[in-house]
Design goal:
The chain is mostly beta strands. It has one domain: Distorted Sandwich (Ganglioside M2 Activator Protein, Chain: A). The chain contains 2 helices and 10 strands. It starts with 8 loop residues before the first strand and ends with a strand.
């Protein structure tokens, strides 16, 4: 026995459990997302002290819940060109997102404040990031890094990846 647990994977449905409401107030990209279980939307306020552009990188780190504790670095990815990357992941919802927030469709987004209904929960089904994934509960850190790898913005969400009923 190696001590490694085999985690089933397959096509999935993403369920949002919670979002930590605001990122660190000292960050240059402050992301505040507001969600509760009794609503069908995620409201957002984004305060950009710097442009959201392709000089930034997009970093995703996922911790999986095992035995009541989150195990860090279960999955991680660092992708260059943050604005284009986020647009690609959300391509089916990008025009709705930018319209709802009053943001430009094309990159970059100028430094300013954006707010509105960022997502309808049904929009989460259309994220373009994986067709199969390991089932479980995850703590997801989404970060934006500058050229020197400093974190300039972040948000933390808790999600459940469940088997899709087909």
């Amino acid at each position: 026995m190696t001590g490694f647990e085999i985690i089933p994977k397959g096509t999935f449905k993403l369920e949002l459990l919670a979002i930590e409401p605001c990122s660190n107030s000292t960050e240059l990209i402050k992301v505040c997302l507001f969600y509760s279980k009794n609503q069908s939307t995620i409201n957002s306020t984004m305060i950009l002290k710097i442009p959201f552009d392709n000089t930034l990188s997009f970093v995703m780190r996922m911790a999986v819940l095992r035995n009541g504790k989150f195990q860090n670095n279960y999955f991680s990815a660092t992708l260059p060109r943050a604005c284009d990357t986020v647009k690609h992941i959300q391509i089916k919802n990008w025009s709705k997102l930018t319209e709802r927030l009053g943001a430009p469709y094309d990159c970059p987004w100028p430094a300013k404040n954006y707010s509105g209904v960022a997502y309808d929960l049904s929009d989460l089904e259309d994220f373009h990031w994986a067709t199969e994934f390991f089932y479980g509960t995850y703590k997801v850190h989404l970060e934006y890094h500058d050229k020197r790898d400093n974190v300039v913005g972040s948000v933390i969400a808790y999600i459940m990846i469940k088997r899709r009923n087909t």
